[in-house]
Amino acid sequence: MSSLQKKETLLIVDDSKFQRVVIRQSLGEHFNFAEAVSGEECLTIMEKESDAIDLVLLDLVMPGIDGFEVLRRRQNMEGFKDTPVIVLTNTESVSSQSEAFALGADEFIIKPVDTRIALTRINNTLGVKRRLQNSRDEQKAWKTKSQIDEMTSQIGRASCR
Questions:
Q1: Secondary structure percentages of the chain, helix, strand, coil, to 5
Q2: What is the SS3 assignment for 111?
Q3: With contact defined as beta carbons under 8 Å apart, do 74 and 104 qualify?
Q4: pLDDT under 50 in the chain at which residues?
Q5: Residue 88: CA atoms inside 13 Å, Cβ hemisphere, count?
């Protein structure tokens, strides 16, 4: 990462303070962090500040609104539904993983978190997000360029119809 590129911000959603500290300490040199102690707090943060969050690390098992319910509600939240989510879990249960993937999770990290695996999965997921955003930006630029008449530098008639 160049010194000019900003560190991306990850939202850690886990009811365990210990797990949040471990993740912050192991990945702190690579990312900025926001934290939520519950599914409810995660949804509130994403409702108000989704533009500031690049990726969510979401524990599945929490009291109240659990990770599965957060994933369900995310599907109807404009600012949240395009934010990648990596699920944190201490189970390798195929049914839990398939349910989370069906609800839109992008990736899994099994606890206890191995820093190398976590960093690779987070960077891969953020890489996909960056490429998608670049593609959207290019598409928007081409659309704008296609509406400008090259001879007059004015918006062409075809785009005014």
A1: 50, 15, 35
A2: coil
A3: yes
A4: 1-3, 159-161
A5: 25
